[in-house]
């Protein structure tokens, strides 16, 4: 796939917006649920043998006569996972869906890495499926190389397994056209819901889906299943298709909302930067680094 | 209506597949899609079962059908049945310009193709005659129904020479106009417009020439001038077409270069040079033109000229001193046939080439083309004597004159010399400060050198100059033998029965059947194994060098007989059909693309999905 690197410079200005306390295991700059050796005072508790004497609040002892130990909020990083659907259907579009998904995925990964978060970049399907982890911006290079080695191929049925693998993350972003049957769609959405506290579906569609060429009767072949189907042509067929498309999109958006998944539409007919500046910021998937403060 | 090739009408059967190709549903229109998930709602089972579609491009189908019909009809060669058999008389231009390779290839090959097309269009009852129009007119094939023979004979022709025989060829061709259904067709490159035909049938001209850049030698001649082995060479070069170029003419004798003459060639302008070269007599001077650029015709790049050879000089010496210096020197001259007579003796019968007078003969002057009067009364030659000078000093002499070549007269000691009064037109040869001491008078063919002193009155016989002067006298008066024969390129030479031409080699000179020179060059004339002389054949025709087609506009069209109008109409219709088909296919695609652009530029770039974004 081709990653549009012009977007990456802008992506470094953003950070992944956290939906709650960070659960990462590494030191970060996001407030976590853990209490310990941070900078911001959280609470006091009774001294227990073994506590660090430097944390004993001597002022409280002088005032109250009780030996109390100071507890601080611990700052951790986010654990972010970006999953790309690299099935064969992603190879379509004047701007290929896989290229757009790769560009957005790389931008999200960079935003996370620049914020000190841990990132897992995974490809489901394609010619080189796999997963790559990184904890700082130096991991971006291997990640880009990993993405650019991969080309769309095969089915999308590996998405649920890829989403379910590993521990629950703070943020999981799935970039896919979601052209899957109802059963697989439900499994995938549930797996996405289960994989993170704040899952996001970036729905990448091209003009092949939004306004397919129905000017002449055509024998269409499904790029993933190989199934063929004769298609009608003409205005009636186009109108019927648009109705079906609307229904399908409405159903998907409604199901995402029901499962608490943030749904972001990313048509390839629009500029990738517009998707970043628009819905990804609006839906609080990203935030402007330094301006949004800590969650 | 009958057809020359009725089987060609079978081409019309292609109309069926053409119509089927328009109507059959294109089952090959398949395309991969990302997914059939949503497309299932527009699945059309009926569409897949239809084999024929509703014809949508009827106009292009109609035009394509018409084009096919026109081409099939043309290939079949329709002829009006009532017209009767045709008599085709073809005049084929075989001048050298037809050997040129122009922008479209070899002209003569195209002419043969045209001839083939014309002849093969004839019916079995039609007749054909072929007349070659080159430097001479030749009836190659008389009226015959054997078309293949006519073509064979035409292919055996080689273009060479001028088009001097064109008028005669037209007269020969016009002689066939009395035949029923006569068509007179002149296949030419159009380099020379044909004169009008005085016959019952009009001349149809089939011009096969295309513009071509060429340069060639248009003038080449050599002649002897006064002086030992001095030859005057006239060299002319002309260019046509293309831009300004540079050319170089290399002159060789027996393969050895003797001079190279550069030319700046400009189209349409002739360039001439007059050269004076010292060349061996009796040899052949060859010229080869090379041009830095396109040069379509090779025939005019070569030329040859025989160099004149000096004969023996019949010399008469009238002297009172038969054992004197002059008599002795003339007797030693290798090419002088000397007769010495005393002044009082009767003169032998002439004519002589040279008469040297040390004394005036009794009676009339001898009959000679060249006379040298040395110290005799100049009044006999129309020159008035003036004063007699004692020990005059020679201050000037005409050292450039052939008589005075290598004659050094500085500090010549003269006992006495008569001052001469040069008549009008006389050329002074020797001059003292007081006036001329020797003059040259030209009187028609007779030339007379009058010298105001006798040889014995000077120390001239003691100088080397004296031997040179005597040799110059003999050469000056030597008769020049004919240089050789000049043959016309492409024309049958008129030779004696047992005489034949043999190419001399050196890159030029090639003979065709019947001993016709087909390439410029030099030849030996051999008779019974003995060389009789030299002959040269050159093109040197400016009309052939200029390869621009110059046919009048009303003659430049193709002959009506060939009847390729149907083919042309068919091609035009086919082109129109193709254009229309492209438009029919392209316009809907453009409309779709425009709709997409409008959609992309609209408020909702991707419909409901864009709104979500």
Q: Features of this protein?
A:
heterodimer; A: 295 residues; 6-stranded mixed beta sheet; 34% helix; 29% strand; disordered C terminus; B: 613 residues; alpha/beta; 8-stranded mixed beta sheet; 5-stranded mixed beta sheet; 22% helix
Précis, in short:
The complex is a heterodimer of chains A (295) and B (613). Chain A is an alpha/beta fold.
Describe the structure.
The complex is a heterodimer of chains A (295) and B (613). Chain A is α/β, with parallel strands linked by helices. Chain A is built from 9 helices and 12 strands. In chain A, the strands form 4 sheets. A 6-stranded mixed sheet of chain A has the order 6-5-4-7-8-11, sandwiched between helices. A two-stranded antiparallel ribbon of chain A has the order 1-12. Chain A has a two-stranded antiparallel sheet with strand order 2-3. In chain A, strand 5 and strand 6 (130-134) form a beta hairpin. Chain A is elongated, with a radius of gyration of 23 Å. The model of chain A is unreliable at 291-295 (pLDDT under 50). Chain B has 613 residues and is an alpha/beta fold. Chain B is 22% helix and 33% strand. Residues 602-607 of chain B have low confidence and may be disordered. Chains A and B meet through helix 7, strand 9, strand 10, helix 8 and strand 11 of A and strand 2, helix 2, helix 10 and helix 11 of B. Strand 9 of chain A pairs parallel with strand 2 (30-33) of chain B.
């Amino acid at each position: 796939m081709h990653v549009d690197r012009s977007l990456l410079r802008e992506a470094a200005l953003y950070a992944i917006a956290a939906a709650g306390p960070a659960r990462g295991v590494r030191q970060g700059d996001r407030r976590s649920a853990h209490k310990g050796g941070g900078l911001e005072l959280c609470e006091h508790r009774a001294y227990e043998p073994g506590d660090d004497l430097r944390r004993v609040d001597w002022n409280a002892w002088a005032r109250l006569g009780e030996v109390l130990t100071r507890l601080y909020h611990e700052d951790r990083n986010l654990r972010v996972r970006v999953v790309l659907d690299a099935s064969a259907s992603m190879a379509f579009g004047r701007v290929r869906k896989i290229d757009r998904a790769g560009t957005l995925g790389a931008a999200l990964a960079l935003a996370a890495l620049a914020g000190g978060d841990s990132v897992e970049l995974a490809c489901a399907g394609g010619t080189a499926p796999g997963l790559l982890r990184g904890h700082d911006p130096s991991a971006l290079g291997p990640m880009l190389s990993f993405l650019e080695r991969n080309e769309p191929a095969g089915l999308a049925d590996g998405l649920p397994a890829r989403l379910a693998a590993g521990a629950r993350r703070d943020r999981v972003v799935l970039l896919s056209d979601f052209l899957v049957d109802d059963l697989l769609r439900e499994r995938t959405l549930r797996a996405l819901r289960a994989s993170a506290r704040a899952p996001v579906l970036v729905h990448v569609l091209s003009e092949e889906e939004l306004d397919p060429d129905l000017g002449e009767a055509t024998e269409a072949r499904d790029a993933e299943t190989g199934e063929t189907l004769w298609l009608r042509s003409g205005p009636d067929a186009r109108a019927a298709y648009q109705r079906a498309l609307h229904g399908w999109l409405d159903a998907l958006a409604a199901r995402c909302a029901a499962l608490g998944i943030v749904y972001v539409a990313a048509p390839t007919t629009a500029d990738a930067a517009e998707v970043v500046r628009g819905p990804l910021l609006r839906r609080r998937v990203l935030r402007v680094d330094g301006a949004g403060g800590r969650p | 209506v009958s057809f020359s090739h009725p089987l060609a009408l079978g081409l019309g059967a292609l109309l069926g597949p053409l119509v089927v190709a328009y109507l059959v549903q294109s089952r090959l229109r398949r395309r991969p899609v990302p997914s059939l998930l949503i497309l299932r709602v527009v699945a059309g089972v009926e569409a897949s079962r239809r084999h024929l579609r509703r014809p949508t491009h009827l106009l292009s189908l109609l035009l394509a059908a018409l084009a096919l019909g026109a081409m099939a009809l043309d290939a079949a060669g329709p002829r009006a049945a009532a017209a009767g058999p045709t008599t085709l008389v073809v005049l084929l231009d075989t001048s050298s310009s037809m050997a040129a390779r122009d922008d479209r290839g070899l002209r003569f090959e195209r002419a043969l193709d045209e001839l083939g097309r014309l002849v093969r269009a004839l019916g079995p009852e039609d007749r054909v005659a072929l007349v070659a129009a080159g430097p001479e007119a030749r009836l190659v094939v008389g009226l015959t129904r054997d078309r293949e023979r006519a073509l064979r004979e035409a292919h055996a022709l080689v273009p060479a020479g001028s088009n001097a025989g064109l008028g005669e060829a037209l007269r020969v061709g016009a002689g066939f106009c009395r035949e029923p259904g006569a068509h007179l067709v002149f296949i030419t490159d159009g380099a020379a417009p044909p004169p009008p035909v005085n016959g019952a049938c009009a001349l149809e001209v089939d011009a096969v020439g295309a513009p071509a850049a060429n340069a060639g030698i248009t003038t080449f001649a050599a002649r002897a001038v006064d002086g030992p082995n001095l030859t005057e060479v006239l060299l002319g070069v002309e260019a046509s077409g293309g831009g300004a170029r540079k050319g170089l003419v290399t002159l060789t004798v027996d393969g050895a270069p003797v001079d190279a003459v550069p030319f700046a060639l400009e189209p349409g302008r002739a360039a001439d040079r007059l050269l004076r070269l010292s060349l061996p007599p009796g040899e052949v001077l060859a010229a080869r033109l090379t041009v830095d650029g396109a040069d379509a015709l090779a025939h005019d790049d070569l030329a040859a000229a025989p160099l004149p050879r000096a004969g023996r000089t019949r010399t008469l010496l009238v002297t009172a001193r038969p054992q004197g210096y002059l008599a002795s020197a003339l007797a030693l001259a290798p090419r002088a046939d000397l007769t010495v007579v005393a002044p009082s003796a009767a003169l032998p019968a002439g004519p002589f080439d040279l008469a040297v007078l040390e004394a005036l003969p009794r009676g009339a002057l001898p009959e000679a083309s060249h006379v040298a009067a040395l110290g005799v009364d100049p009044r006999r030659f129309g020159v008035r004597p003036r004063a007699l000078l004692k020990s005059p000093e020679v201050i000037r002499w005409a050292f450039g004159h052939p008589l005075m070549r290598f004659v050094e007269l500085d500090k010549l000691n003269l006992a006495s010399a008569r001052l001469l009064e040069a008549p009008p037109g006389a050329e002074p040869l020797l001059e003292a400060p007081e006036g001329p001491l020797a003059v040259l008078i030209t009187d028609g063919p007779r030339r007379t050198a009058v010298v105001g002193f006798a040889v014995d009155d000077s120390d001239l016989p003691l100088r080397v100059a004296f031997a040179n002067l005597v040799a110059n006298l003999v050469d000056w008066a030597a008769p020049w033998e004919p240089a050789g024969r000049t043959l016309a390129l492409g024309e049958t030479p008129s030779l004696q029965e047992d005489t034949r031409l043999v190419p001399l080699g050196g890159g030029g000179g090639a003979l065709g059947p019947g001993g016709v020179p087909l390439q410029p060059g030099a030849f030996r004339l051999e008779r019974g194994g003995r060389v009789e002389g030299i002959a040269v054949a050159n093109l040197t025709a400016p009309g052939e060098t200029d390869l621009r087609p110059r046919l009048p506009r009303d003659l430049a069209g193709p002959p009506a007989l060939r009847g390729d109008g149907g083919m042309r109409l068919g091609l035009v219709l086919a082109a129109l059909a193709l254009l229309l088909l492209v438009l029919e296919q392209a316009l809907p695609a453009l409309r779709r693309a425009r709709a997409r652009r409008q959609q992309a530029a609209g408020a909702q770039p991707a419909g409901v999905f864009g709104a979500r974004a």
